[in-house]
Amino acid sequence: MYVILVYDIGEMRVARMLKLCRKYLNWIQNSVFEGEITEVKLKEFMGKAHTIMDLDNDSIILFKSREQRWLDKQIIGVERGPVTNFL
Amino acid sequence: MKKSYYLFNPVRLSRKDNTLQFTPFDEQGNEAGPCRYIPVETVSDLYVFGSLDANSALYNFLGKHGISAHFFDYYEHYTGSFFAKEYLLAGKMQVAQTRHYTLRNKRVALAQKFIEGAAFNILKNLRYYHNREKDLAASISQIEKYATQISATTEVPELMGLEGNIRQTYYAAFDTIVAGFTMENRSKRPPKNELNVLISFGNMMCYAACLDMIYHTQLNPTISFLHEPGTRRFSLALDLAEIFKPILVDRTIFRVLNKREVQPSDFATDLNGCVLKESGKKTFVKAFEERLKETVKHRTLNKSVSYKHLIKLECYKLSKHVMGIEEYKPFKIWW
């Protein structure tokens, strides 16, 4: 499954959330991540995210897509974090 | 599914916040460009072609996550791997595998299977191009003749000789399949021309892929059947690669050359031999990676499996054979 994750997290907790996201997904823009992830890994991630979040103030929005090729992605301006495995 | 990462540019890889931090740097060792993070949970293995700067903290971390790093030198030779601690140890399997190596008839029987699979897949390649207006009838009948002799062999060196003959006939047919490049003879260390470079480079990628799959099974990569198990090398990967080289490597070579994805300008010939330039390496590795990810419908499992997974299934079949559960049948391309 291919996901796009955006978060809005309070200043106190945002650094922890950033670090957690980096482990599972590719950073593409401030508070936006995307990448291929399995169902189980996503569950594992969500479990950890819950321990960081304050559910009354913070939010995570997840866009799911079955596969990357069904996502029409356009970049206008600078691509800040390209997603590639050829480095 | 976890991905392989291919590192071409000089980088410093370090452990940062329990994930991988990736900092490009220039020849002077100064940082060049902003650092990036690789999500560690998505990494299956690293293929290192450029220079990698790393410390033991990183290797400890890679080891914990079961990520292996494969290294290749400037001339595209496979030089070695960093392997995480074996996590699927099985003494029983080790003993069974060794017994199959030491008993001559058992070893020859297995070795024959590898060649049988390789010859079948080679023929499939040739027939494919024969049906596309390339005249390969002579090579096909020659290899078919060799293939019938496989079951008559009683010694491993004899079998290796036969395999050599098959390969020689096969490589001679490359001239017909690929327009614009000539093969001449198979040359190594260093390869003399473009086709030889691609074969060497591709084979090496195939060895690394096989080795990586063996690592995820209980087989011991140092005990092989067709190739002589030497020291300091993982020869079982060479055995397995025999079957997959025609499908993974040779088909990729035909594709990149016939579609002109790799051009003569991607090679440097000013040296004693010929080497692939950075641009050529990248294109080839990309095509190879796409090939590994490609899926086919498996007939007995009744689901889609990738070529990479086919290698793993081959390992499972092999382990079943040595444990005496089911006789090993080499993978033969069925489409």
Greatest contact between two chains: A-B, 16 and 24 residues
Task: Report the average pLDDT across residues of chain B.
Answer: 81
* Envelope shape of chain B: globular
Continuous helix count of chain B: 9
* Spatial shape of chain A: globular
CATH topology of the largest domain in chain B: Four Helix Bundle (Hemerythrin (Met), subunit A)
Q: How many structural domains can be distinguished in the coordinates of chain B?
A: 2
End-to-end separation of chain A: 23 Å
CA gyration radius of chain A, whole angstroms: 13 Å
Enzyme class (chain B): hydrolase
Family (chain B): Belongs to the CRISPR-associated endonuclease Cas1 family.
Organism (chain B): Adhaeribacter arboris
Subunit structure (chain B): Homodimer, forms a heterotetramer with a Cas2 homodimer.
What does this structure look like?
The complex is a heterodimer of chains A (87) and B (335). With 87 residues, chain A is an alpha+beta fold. Chain A has a single domain (2-68), classed as 2-Layer Sandwich (Alpha-Beta Plaits). Chain A contains two helices and four strands. Chain A has helices at residues 11-24, 39-52; strands at 2-8, 26-29, 32-36, 59-65. Chain A has a four-stranded antiparallel β-sheet with strand order 2-3-1-4, covered by helices on one side. In chain A, strand 2 and strand 3 (32-36) form a beta hairpin. In chain A, helix 1 (11-24) packs antiparallel against helix 2 (39-52). The radius of gyration of chain A is 13 Å and the shape is globular. By secondary structure, chain B is of the alpha/beta class. Chain B folds into two domains: 3-72, Ribosomal Protein L15, Chain: K, domain 2; 91-322, Four Helix Bundle (Hemerythrin (Met), subunit A). Chain B is built from nine helices and twelve strands. In chain B, a hairpin with a 4-residue loop joins strand 11 (295-298) and strand 12 (303-306). Chain B starts with a strand and ends in a 13-residue tail after the last helix. The A-B interface holds A 19, 22-27, 35-38, 41, 81, 85-87 and B 1, 3-9, 11, 17-19, 22, 36-42, 282, 285-286, 289.
